[in-house]
Design goal:
This protein has 181 residues and is α/β, with parallel strands linked by helices. It is built from seven helices and eight strands. It starts with 10 loop residues before the first strand and ends with a helix.
Length: 181
């Protein structure tokens, strides 16, 4: 594991309104990133490398609170890292900007089309996306990787979907880490 010592000129933006303008040539990865495990680190590495190739900005789009705290409060998971620890880890692995979207019942009703238009295109000016194979988003998780592929391609956004990372025959996931803990 390589941890980058990135100058703390990087920023965490708590909501889209806190960004003055879209980052230059944004290469974005999206997720909760709880635990910032090896699978997350691989997404970040590829996001950062792509941003470097196009003189862009590596951006992590994440949510606070964790969606389960809003959608399924009785089944909420415990967090592997605090939000602050997660942000430090994301920055340490090479993310330049973190957009932390407030997750609420209202936000959970955002359609996949609205999410792409409002956040990825208008808010971040996304040039490329790096996602995990099981990524879902939007109202009732209606946005799958396939849906996002169609929406992104129609707007000229590159989409890279990473396969699951397995260690000793087990797919690395925050759920598995929680279970092991």
């Amino acid at each position: 594991i390589i941890v980058y010592d990135i100058p703390r000129l990087m920023h965490v933006y708590k909501g889209l309104a806190k960004l003055n303008s879209p980052p230059k040539n944004a290469v974005v990865t999206i997720g909760n990133f709880d635990g910032v495990h090896r699978g997350h680190q691989e997404l970040i590495r590829k996001t950062r490398q792509h941003a470097e190739r196009i003189s862009g900005t590596a951006v992590a789009l994440t949510f606070r609170p964790h969606p389960y705290f809003v959608i399924k409060p009785r089944n909420e998971p415990f967090l592997i890292n605090t939000y602050e620890e997660k942000n430090e880890l994301l920055l340490g692995f090479g993310v330049e900007k973190i957009l932390e979207l407030p997750f609420s019942r209202e936000f959970s009703n955002t359609t996949p089309e609205e999410f792409v238009e409002d956040f990825l295109l208008h808010g971040l000016g996304t040039k490329a996306l790096y996602l995990g194979y099981d990524f879902t988003f939007g109202k009732e998780r209606a946005g799958s990787v396939e849906v996002l592929k169609k929406l992104a391609e129609a707007k000229g956004v590159e989409l890279h979907v990473e396969p699951p990372l397995a260690v000793e025959g087990k797919i690395v996931s925050s759920s598995l880490i929680r279970k092991s803990l």
